[in-house]
Amino acid sequence: QAYSGTPPEEKEKIVWVRFENADLNDTSRNMEFHEIHSTGNEPPLLLVIGYSDGMQVWSIPISGEAQELFSVRHGPVRAARILPAPQISAQKCDNFAEKRPLLGVCKSIGSSGTSPPYCCVDLYSLRTGEMVKSIQFKTPIYDLHCNKRILVVVLQEKIAAFDSCTFTKKFFVTSCYPCPGPNMNPIALGSRWLAYAENKLIRCHQSRGGACGDNIQSYTATVISAAKTIKTGLTMVGKVVTQLTGTLPSGATEEEILAHSNLRRSPLVPGIVTIIDTETVAEGQVLVSEDSDSDGIVAHFPAHEKPICCMAFNPSGMLLVTTDTLGHDFHVFQILTHPCSSSQSAVHHLYTLHRGETEAKVQDISFSHDCRWVVVSTLRGTSHVFPINPYGGQPCVRTHMSPRVVNRMSRFQKSAGLEEIEQELTSKQGGRCSPVPGLSSSPSGSPLHGKSAFFLSFHREDNTDFIKREAVPYLFGAGCFSIKAPCKSKPAPQISPSKSVGGEFCVAAVFGASRSWFANNSGLKREKDQSKQFVVESLYIISCYGSLVEHVLEPRPLSTAPKISDDTPLEMVTCPRASWTLVRTPQWNELQPPFNANHPLLLAADAVQYYQYLLAGLVPPGSPGPITRHESYDSLASDHSGQEDEEWLSQVEIVTHTGPHRRLWMGPQFQFKTIHPSGQTTVISSSSSVLQSHGPSDTPQPLLDFDTDDLDLNSLRIQPVRSEPVSMPGSPRPAADRRGVSTVIDASS
């Protein structure tokens, strides 16, 4: 273009990006990805891009060939979600089954045209192209979340949940703590639990654990915050004057007046997290107070001292990652529920992942599928990768160099008796202790100890992608093992990219199977185990420039370690392998519904709906009659449909016991010493008196079959080199008095 003088191709402006989970990549309910039907397929990456005018949906299958699924231009879009097929039963049917898949959109101009901007959610059918439902609100909408049970609409300081089958209001929350951004009201929606930032800490509902106590601020953070002291002091003086007089300055905004009135009425407490069960929570308003019961409340605990900025559940829903508005530390919690009340639930603080000393706003958090890696993306355009364990403890060679998740304790550690430490800790703390030794599980607090480890920073540039690795410290939760794994590499030069909106970059990241093989070998056929050649899944990052880059992660033992063992710390080697340019140009045609029956989104919706009907024992559309449980399993497991039940049932648990991994004397508590002869080397012979057993007839009988020289016991150094004999209780005389005295063993002994 520079040579020919033609202007560069114009591209549309990207406002937000997001990796989506829908029926197309649902590994649990899409039969295409089930093990009994698996042919080496992997779920595709589903990517949603929001532009200043419209939106776009991409699919990147395992072949690496990106496919555009949806594209429309109808004004700015604040949030959009592809709704998964709902969970149905004999008592609960899907009212929109014939219209699915559905697309939920919050745009500047709603379907009615009279509502304020971003105050309604329109549900469109991708099968027919018509709008099937419109949900109106009085206040602006900031985000949408959905799973197979509910659709969650996030408002300012409010949350409204709707049933996924009927889209009728199920429950709503009005006690959310406000956040300045980028997530105005941060929530985390798992497969069943919903976590949000509560504005108060209710002691009667508070769970055991969480993160309490002041974090130790480093010297660098103190120097950085020193420049803000004067401004903060003046602000505090103004607040004191306001509180004393009970009035606000004449130029105060409506938000300040509202915040001031709320402060006078009841002070808000930042950093509190409440987790509710969307299945058992009562309909109507969810209120956490001293007078309310704990029905549906899973946990209620303090997570930060500052307002919470972002939260995310892991795929299993047992781990929760939270971060505050400063963006220095990311807390990893393990949620252990109690069937009675939230006050008896345990919230174990597994890790505190430290990013740096400068402030940054977190916009995206994502786990790997095995929950051993977590990536956190900030508005600075940087993605940070941290190694963790789902059960806590030190990330090391044993835990992160294997393609599968390993147990917290190896078989060697179990047979060596090292689990007695955990048993002792459990007995001291009433059976609900933290999975890391020394970590307090009580709400009284858990001090944080600084550790050192590694993280990866992925910085984005305009049409250029590079990686920076730094040797920086980060914090683990109290009681975790010390890690020292600096990544020694020269930092890459940071080139300031062109800003998107107000100097901030929209970035999203996700883990997935490698697709770079297609870019390098487009003519080769993919092997079944090609995606399993790496220990860690590839990391896919898309920025506000519309460029999707695959980064290959290769953990290795620390190169500076003197000896490599199971406990050796890690270091990471990374490399960008493939790139896809997905940004839309003004010349691109729109791709709007109705779609054909062979559209990937429609095929996935039909497959998931059929699977849902089979599990519920209902009649799928087009079937002659009802389907039993046995028939539904046979239809799912067609490879085994010709076999009788007895053929596979007789093979269940045929192996009920396996031998020990190693013998007890191989443990570290046993030591073996070498016997050094004082004179020349001799060998025991069969005629030695020591090796002769005396029976009742006192007739010597040889025990060995070879003939060598006699061995004098006095010439051997029987006692260990460093040990001294110890008198045992009940002995007639000290052991030192019996040195060199031979003992005759009776044959009947």
UniProtKB/TrEMBL annotation:
The keyword Mitochondrion does not apply. Residues 12-454 form the BCAS3 WD40 domain. Residues 641-683 form the BCAS3 domain. Residues 426-447, 626-645, 681-705, 717-749 are annotated as: Disordered. Residues 434-447, 681-697 have a biased composition (Low complexity). SMART domains: WD40. It is found in: Cytoplasm, Cytoskeleton; Nucleus; Preautophagosomal structure. It comes from the Eukaryota. One of its GO terms (biological process) is autophagy. Keywords: Acetylation, Angiogenesis, Cytoplasm, Cytoskeleton, Isopeptide bond, Nucleus, Phosphoprotein, Transcription, Transcription regulation, Ubl conjugation. One of its GO terms (cellular component) is nucleus. InterPro entries: BCAS3-like, BCAS3_dom, BCAS3_WD40, WD40/YVTN_repeat-like_dom_sf, WD40_repeat_dom_sf, WD40_rpt. Belongs to the BCAS3 family. Interacts with histone H3, ESR1, KAT2B and PELP1; the interactions occur in a estrogen-dependent manner. Interacts with beta-tubulin and VIM. Interacts (via C-terminal) with PHAF1; the interaction is requrired for the association with the phagophore. PANTHER family: BCAS3 MICROTUBULE ASSOCIATED CELL MIGRATION FACTOR, BREAST CARCINOMA AMPLIFIED SEQUENCE 3. This is BCAS3 microtubule associated cell migration factor. The lineage of its organism: Eukaryota, Metazoa, Chordata, Craniata, Vertebrata.
